């Protein structure tokens, strides 16, 4: 019974469980159907609203109800996403701006440079002998060719050129867009006029000797032709002379050429043009101002104003630099670098230059110098290394001849040397005995000065000029030499060192200083010197015809020693006529050997050109220069001011 009851209870419980499961399933089905019906109705409502809406994108008024449709977590996610989106956009925009923003040079600013000396001829026909004149002339005028930062010739006014097979004809096409500073077009006639003026002996241009044997012809309005009587390997090097405007100069007679106002207020076609100048009470120019030429055919310079202040010596210029009155000096002697108060404020550009400094003998003005033994003795007693190390503070390199050591034609076997004992021996063998002048001799000479006997009076005058000491005498004549040097501090220090070397041989030496502005007219042109300490720019080509050929002697030539040697003349003529390098080497080797034997000059050193500028001047690129004015050849690259510009590559 009990077992039956228990079975019945178990069956009832199973039925209950089954009914319960069915009930809950029915409820779920009903709920699902109710949800599905609601969702379906909601979808129909949304489709109706969407079809009636004018815009399918929510507007700002609609967006404000977004909170009603999103829960807090969803709102937080949207806000965080917007924040990171804005932050990323700002960051990416900044990086894009930073990547494409360039600091660019812009036009403007002024550069003030100090020059030692004073301008006189800002005229390419006469500026050769003065660095001051050449510096300004190089900025104001244009030439066929100029030099780039590496010292190589590049086109300037020349658009193109052709050279004939026999190297005798040079055809040059002139660029059509060159203008004079007054607005007139630069024409072939201006070139013809300039060249013919240089060649005309009445104008006394020092460039004349370089173009003997060359003629010019006009081909058309944009082309000229140079015709050489003989081929010349380095003729293009000569075509760096600048052109002057015919319309302004042709009415001025040759005698008045050097007096014309255009020499100080020039009209050229270069990157800068004359603006103004100021003179002091004595008539010397104190400052000179140029302004960028907006019509320049080449790359226009970015520095708007260039000004020059002029000084008597380098010490004055350095004082002005230290006082911030100027921002650079054309040349800074090595031994004066220590005078800079704030050296870190400046860039000192060490430029290579083919220049030699030498002592030139004028045998006509001092009969003693005609003796080769005296000239050799004077050469042997000079310790060049001592001058370079102690006087020039290693700011130069030693040389021993008219062709520099880095030139392909340099004769490595052509060496002179220092030997004081040999120098003394040569003087003794030549009959120059040492005689002492005492204090008593000086007293007696002072008495003899009043003598009626002219011979006695002259002898007394000579003794007084010698002073107390031991001096060399021969045939009752004392060996006296006068050295002339440009009155720059560096030149005078070198001249004083030479004076000491020679006086240690018991030779009386008088030192004479000449102002840079006077050296050409008063000393060189008239050959008014016995011994001249002077520098020459010899160029990249070994051709030294202009300096040592006998035809270049005299007032208008560059043969300062008035040296004449028929064999040398022939060697120089042959060397410049051939383009064969091996032949040229052989000719110049023999030439150097003869110069070494004849000693028309004592070759001392080749200085390095130290150009100092304020660090505010950016992008100076020159490395090699031929003449000091070449430092301005890339002036269009210099800049002071900068600006920001977006550049999309």
UniProtKB/TrEMBL annotation:
Name of the featured protein? Solute-binding protein family 5 domain-containing protein
Name the source organism.
Candidatus Falkowbacteria bacterium CG02_land_8_20_14_3_00_36_14
A single GO BP: peptide transport
Protein family per UniProt = Belongs to the bacterial solute-binding protein 5 family.
What does the UniProt keyword field contain?
Membrane, Signal, Transmembrane, Transmembrane helix, Transport
Tell me, what's a Pfam family for it?
SBP_bac_5
The residues that cross the membrane are: 76-97
The Gene Ontology terms for molecular function here are:
peptide transmembrane transporter activity
**Superkingdom classification of source:** Bacteria
Q: Which PANTHER family match?
A: OLIGOPEPTIDE-BINDING PROTEIN APPA (PTHR30290:SF9), PERIPLASMIC BINDING COMPONENT OF ABC TRANSPORTER (PTHR30290)
Q: Where is the signal peptide?
A: none
Q: List residues of the Solute-binding protein family domain.
A: 153-554
